[in-house]
Amino acid sequence: MPMSEIEVPKELREFMLEEAEETFLGQKNGAHKQYRYGNLHIREYDDKFLLHSDRIDPRKDPIGHLVHDAPEVLIGLACAVFAGSQIAKKFLNKKSKKSTFTSALISSIIFGYLGYTITRKIKNHLE
Q1: Domain boundaries, given as residue ranges, for the chain
Q2: Which of 18, 53, 88, 89 has the greatest number of beta carbons closer than 10 A?
Q3: Rounded Cα–Cα distance for residues 82 and 64 (Å)
Q4: Given a cut of 60, is residue 53 above it in pLDDT?
Q5: CA 83 to chain CA mean position, Å
Q6: Average pLDDT of the chain?
Q7: Measured between alpha carbons, how far is 9 from 83 in angstroms, rounded to an integer?
Q8: Beta-sheet strand order (sheet of 6-9)
Q9: What is the spatial distance between Cα 11 and Cα 47, in angstroms, rounded to a whole number?
């Protein structure tokens, strides 16, 4: 759990803002539901709520949110696109199209995941 998150146990108080909207935007991290209220991101678990404040509300500025609050997603996508395109270029003339597509897809998934995971670890370490 990043230091910037606040934990509110449900047993102390059933916490929920009336104006908070349930959303699919954001990483659920095992939560049953998640909500947004302005820049506040609320995750609901069986026994608690976890809250943190984003710099930018993804409903208003999705690209700004990715850049400032979730750069690991952008870096993961960039790694996936780069790896897939490099594999496709390398094997395009040497293998069948099906084999090239499969190689590019697999490398995209692997490098995208690695880029995302490494960036997330660095981000969490810096927080």
Answers
A1: 6-53, 70-126
A2: 88
A3: 22
A4: yes
A5: 19
A6: 85
A7: 43
A8: 6-9, 48-53, 40-44, 33-37, 21-22
A9: 7
